[in-house]
Design brief:
The chain has 26 helices and 8 strands. It is mainly alpha-helical and about 600 residues long.
Length: about 600
């Protein structure tokens, strides 16, 4: 009877875990997608494999990515013949599944009676809509969250011996820093946690030093050599995106609003505050001085993990998410903290209600019901189309999803273009192949914005400047005049684009735009517009002769001839002003003394 009971208990545990894993992974697969930013990384991977180095543009050593380990993984699988889209999606799903497994184990360790196994944290993560969205997205979010969670598990729940715990936690956090530099906050918090526990535990100075060395060994062996290489290769300690996104400046007003938008629609995440209640009301009942109570809290296997989780939430939330202004992608920066919100809630409820299985089960059920309510409210700000809603922002001339510059990135990327019947990635791929045909054998330099990273990747343009400075050191270091939408606060100045001999901008128009700059590509469903930034006479003659039925643009040589014919009726001041524009647009790139002399002669009068 005992063996049969144990067998049935174990079966229920395994069945519960399998159901949660299947449910979560199915949701992640169903919602899989890739965002536009990852196509910058794809271009780095392609250039690396093509022998150009880890660069966005050949010859320019600019670190326009923040996830070196993620880039290495994508490049490795691309070398094996797996497309970067597939590898980024399935690596993310694999990390997501492993992360669920970690919290399934943690819940098992938290369970006093093994026949009452309700893994609340893992179950919520499997049901959490935005956590499932960011299982993929192409970016490193899922892997980053997994590595942080693995380090937490190693320190608090792994039963492999003290030194092995420190070694593995340090290794996972070092890999997390290689995945995203902001992991340094988790690293420092965990290291301080280890040292404080060692001190409180009464360990000798020698043992404490040993713990510190073991914990930091991975940084010394892996990260420091990488850092020397990075600085020598890119010439900077910080990635270029750190400057492009003004990471050095504080933007707390936007950052706290970013956190507010998350908690506003996921109020169940605020249940992490139960951790504070647990520490003070339950563990705080111990006798003795305040310092003695603190020592007991850090020594306890029940309360110490809650302390570390709370430190993660407050430290990362305040000193990274809030400080940098959050992100323009809804919830993305909060995702690494989501497991700790619900772990803290679960662990605290188990501690507060440990004497009543009925109350504990009821509280878990209540949390799940509230999560369902969260999900229903989460959709509202991203489907409202009334202009009365002040949170709505305007993007590209149309009413889109958004809260003060924060958008539902998956919806924006997965929405179907009504003219082509394709999503953004498929549309960019189709258009990119068309551009490859038009510009085959020609050196093309293009200004891209945000989502056009896809087009740059598929079209294979020789040289690209990202308008907001993500891949360009000059733009990234421009003075910041005022704060705005995170990651979109700088713009490439026209004189810089001229100096870089940029040919085109597609899909939109530059800030300084004249009608003669238009270019339009004929497509089956809807023509695709663009702007000529600098007019390359030989290139434009080639396009006119070979693709006159498919590409329309203003012949600037004809425009100049008409301008010169009517020059007598144009005031000298206007001619001088126009000449400056014409020089940037045409004369600086094309040797045409016959036409230019008319402007020089009038300028002398």
């Amino acid at each position: 009877m005992i063996k049969k009971s144990l067998s049935w208990s174990k079966f229920r545990l395994v069945l519960t875990a399998e159901i949660i894993l299947i449910m979560g992974i199915y949701s992640a697969i169903r919602l899989r997608w890739v965002c536009d930013d990852i196509f910058i990384t794809f271009r780095y991977a392609k250039n690396w494999l093509d022998g150009l180095g880890i660069v966005y543009n050949a010859g320019e050593h600019v670190e326009g990515y923040t996830h070196f380990l993620w880039l290495c993984l994508i490049t490795f699988f691309q070398k094996l013949g797996i497309s970067p889209i597939d590898s980024s999606e399935w690596l993310g799903i694999g990390a997501y599944g492993t992360l669920l497994s970690i919290f399934l184990i943690i819940s098992y360790r938290l369970t006093d009676k093994k026949n009452f196994y309700i893994p609340l944290t893992a179950l919520i993560l499997a049901l959490h809509y935005d956590f499932n969205i960011w299982a993929t997205g192409g970016l490193e979010t899922s892997l980053f969250t997994l590595l942080i969670s693995l380090s937490f598990y190693a320190i608090c729940y792994m039963r492999t011996g003290r030194n092995n715990q420190f070694l593995l936690a340090g290794l996972f956090l070092t890999l997390a820093v290689l995945t995203r530099p902001d992991a340094i906050i988790f690293y420092v918090i965990t290291f301080l946690f280890v040292i404080v526990r060692e001190l409180i535990g009464g360990e000798t100075p020698r043992k404490i030093l040993s713990a510190a060395l073991i914990f930091n060994s991975s940084v010394l062996v892996i990260y420091i050599p990488y850092l020397f290489w990075k600085v020598s290769y890119y010439g900077s300690f910080f990635p270029n995106t750190y400057y492009a996104k003004s990471g050095f400046a504080s933007y707390y007003s936007q950052g706290f609003y970013y956190l507010y938008t998350y908690f506003k629609f996921y109020t169940t995440s605020l249940l992490f505050l139960l951790g504070i209640v647990y520490l003070f009301l339950v563990r705080g009942k111990s006798q003795g001085t305040a310092s003695a109570r603190i020592r007991e809290l850090f020594r306890s296997d029940q309360s110490a993990p809650i302390i570390l989780a709370l430190a993660y939430i407050l430290g990362y939330g305040i000193f990274f998410i809030a400080k940098v202004g959050g992100d323009f992608m809804y919830a993305r920066f909060v995702i690494p903290l989501v497991p700790f919100f619900y772990f803290t809630a679960e662990a605290s409820l188990r501690g507060l209600l440990r004497d009543s299985r009925v109350l504990l089960a009821g509280s878990f059920l209540t949390v799940l019901v509230l999560l369902y309510v969260d999900h229903s409210r989460r959709v509202i700000p991203f489907i409202e189309s009334s202009s009365k809603n002040k949170d709505i922002i305007i993007l590209s001339g149309d009413l889109k999803l958004g809260l003060n510059g924060i958008v539902d990135e998956r919806w924006l990327n997965m929405r179907i273009n009504p003219f082509t019947g394709l999503d953004l990635t498929s549309s960019a791929k189709q258009l990119g192949f068309e551009f490859k045909k038009y510009f085959s054998g020609k050196e093309i330099r293009v200004l891209i914005q945000g989502a056009q990273a896809r087009l740059a990747y598929y079209a294979g343009f020789d040289y690209c400047i990202e308008n907001y400075g993500l891949t360009d050191a000059y733009i990234a270091h421009l003075p910041l005049k005022e704060r705005g939408r995170p990651g979109h606060e700088r713009n490439a100045p026209n004189d810089y684009l001229v100096s870089k001999r940029i040919n085109f901008m597609f899909g939109s128009f530059p800030q300084e735009y004249s009608g003669y700059q238009y270019i339009q590509f004929k497509r089956p469903n809807r023509d695709y517009p663009g702007a000529i930034i600098t007019y390359d006479r030989e290139l434009m003659r080639y396009l006119r002769e070979k693709y006159s039925s498919e590409i329309r643009f203003s012949d600037f040589e004809e425009y100049l001839d008409g301008y010169i014919r009517g020059m007598k009726s144009i005031p000298a001041g206007q001619i001088k002003s126009d000449y400056k524009k014409f020089k940037d647009y045409y004369f600086s790139r094309n040797y045409d003394p016959g036409r230019e002399r008319y402007f020089l002669e009038r300028g002398e009068q």
